[in-house]
Amino acid sequence: MSAVTMEATTILPILKKKLAFLSGGKDRRSGLILNIPLSSDQTSMEELSATLDYLLSIPSEKCKARGFTVIVDGRKSQWNTVKTVVLMLQNVIPPEVSLVCVVKPDEFWDKKVTHFCFWKEKDRLGFEVILVSANKLTRYIEPCQLTDDFGGSLDYDHSDWLNKRLVFEKFTKESTSLLDELSIINDADKSSSMDKDKSADCALLPSFDPETVLQTGHELLSELQQRRFNGSEGGGGGQGAWCPMEEELLAQPQVMKLLDSLREQYTRYQELCRQRNKRTQLDEIHAKVMQVVTWLQGPGSELLKTQQTIGDSIRSAQALQQRHEEIESQHSEWFAVYVELNQQIAALLSTGEEEEVAELKALQQQLSDVCYRQAAQLESRQNVLQAAQGFHSTTQELSQQLDGLLGMLCADVAPADGAAIQQNLKLLEEKLQTVEAGLTSLRQKGALLLEQTCSQPSWPLEETESPTTEQQDSVQHIQSVMEDMQLRKQRCEDMVDVRRLKMLQMVQLFKCEEDALQAVEWLSELLDALLKTHVRLGDDSQETRTMLDKHRKFVDVAQSTYDYGRQLLQATVVLCQSLRCTTRSSGDTLPRLNRVWKQFSVSAEERQQRLELALNFHTAAERVRKTLLNYEVDSLGKTLLDRLTMPVIFPDGSEQFFGSPTDTAAAAEGVRERLLLVEERRLQLQEARLHNDGDEREEEVFLELEEMFKVQKGIRNKFHSV
């Protein structure tokens, strides 16, 4: 096809006037039919000439070679205008024009004059001009190739043709320009790919959107294939298979060729864009990877290297932890970039080429190594700070516990009794156990902190000097704190031992005082029992002797109690001297003990003398059977009776009787009965001797007296029990 030298857009107002048009109809030689509908208004020859130039530039050379038939519709125009148009055709119509049909009106024109004029100008015009009425036009052209203006059946819509022509020209212009641009871009990229050191100096973005141009072309091609261009649906009559639009007026081959070329260049361009996008994506990934690596190995590492201490207190450790969290927050942003890059690299690895895969894997490995190494440094630092906080917290707690224990040890101990001392001693032991547990926990956390500090991941060789020094300082600080706590605990233990000994001595002191008081109470009870219950003197010598033995044992018990109390009081004196304190025993308990003991001694002595006197009495009474005259019994009995009526006089001048008056009266009655029996026996013995009854009678009387004495003894025992 010949290139269009004129565009419809440049003369669009003129084309809209429909001064001339190609209806798509053909003459009997298959030549194109050019219609020039003249109107009653004055026709501008310049506009008509421009219209004809544009229309005649559309058909191909092959189509032009078959010639043209021009129909000048002068039915609504003046003869002079028609004549001017016909004469103008010789300048704009190619030589292939063989016939010009001037459709004349049915009247007004002089046929002879007009026919003669055109015949006269035939040689000069170069084509035949005939005047024909509209109903006779079918003699030269088939009705199916004529529009309805001339009684034909060919449909033609000038507005539709003009719109389609504008679309076609726009597509042709845009596709041609796009093809040139894509060709330049593709060729430039090919040359740049051969010379990698030389970058392509071309625009990657074409002037038109290829997708839009392709869509426009496909829509246009679809319209052309339906033969609606210029409003024609194909031939009529008996020539339905003939399609004049396919090769002459319709631009299907040109559109199809443009579409094919455009698809080819666009496919290459898409591949180019894909490759460049991939290369750009690789470059961006590489830049981001290097950005992450540079920050982590640069500012990130510097931040971590400046944070190697563990602090000297819980507050400083917390401040370091807060600073570390800020550093972690900064690292988290870069780690998020790392995760995103890793995902992008993983996606590219599945679709990349071998060379790209190797490059991506190298970038991925480098990025992973740096990120994991930095993450290990962060985690190690976090573990160290957590261990440091635990260590400093335990140190602070242990220090407070030691201060509390020391304060308790420095305070004066003034307990009220042994139970209070035991309670204080228990509290002291509990505090000491708490300190011991705290020190054990401190050792464990110190060992963990030392391990965490010494096992931190190392930095590159050129960066290891500063961290090593700080690690050594941290280790020395940890060991110093643990040694200091151990010394403080040892000092407290020594003070606890002294305090424990003192408190145990105080417990012993209170115990001795309590036991001494108990000894006084026991001795008082023995004295009370001696005075109130030890009244009987026995009914015979054997019973009195038994009571005398029991009395001696009773006195021995009291003596032991007194000696025990004296020993306890002596112990309290020694403990008070050791504790440098006063005690109640030295001013109160000892005089009481001595006073009670003296009273007991006097009472026991009196009781013993009475028992010994009663024993002598009973012994003398029992000897009466062998001796008739025995005044010793009477003397002893009277002495014993006198002794029973006498009170016990204590050293302080106070007096105390044995038992109650009833008990004393019962004991005296027993002595009197004994004396009475002795007196009766003496009288019987005297009478027996007077009657010379001899020794046998005396024995019988004695036995009777003894039996009578036993009966009286039983009655007296019942009396005492009552």
From TrEMBL:
Keywords: Repeat. The keyword Cytoplasm does not apply. Residues 1-158 form the CRAL-TRIO domain. SUPFAM superfamilies: Spectrin repeat. The keyword Repeat applies. One of its GO terms (molecular function) is phosphatidylinositol-4,5-bisphosphate binding. Coiled coil: none annotated. Gene3D superfamilies: 1.20.58.60. Belongs to the SOLO family. This is CRAL-TRIO domain-containing protein.
